[in-house]
Amino acid sequence: MAKEFDILVAGGGIAGLTAGLTAARLGRSVQVLTGDVLGGNLLSIEKIEGFPGFADGVAGYELCPITQGQAAEAGAGFAMTEVIELQADGARWNVTDPVETYSAGAVIIATGASIKELGVPGEEALRGHGVSHCASCDAPLLKDKVVAVVGGGDSAAQEALTLAGAASSVTIYCREDALIAKAVYQARIEAHAGIDVRYGTTIDKILGDDVVTGISAGGADMECDGVFIYIGLAPNTGFLNGLLDLGADGRVPVDEDLRSQVPGLFAAGCVRTGSAGQAASSAGDGAAAAIAADAYLEGGTWR
Question: What is the pTM of this model?
Answer without folding.
Answer: 0.85
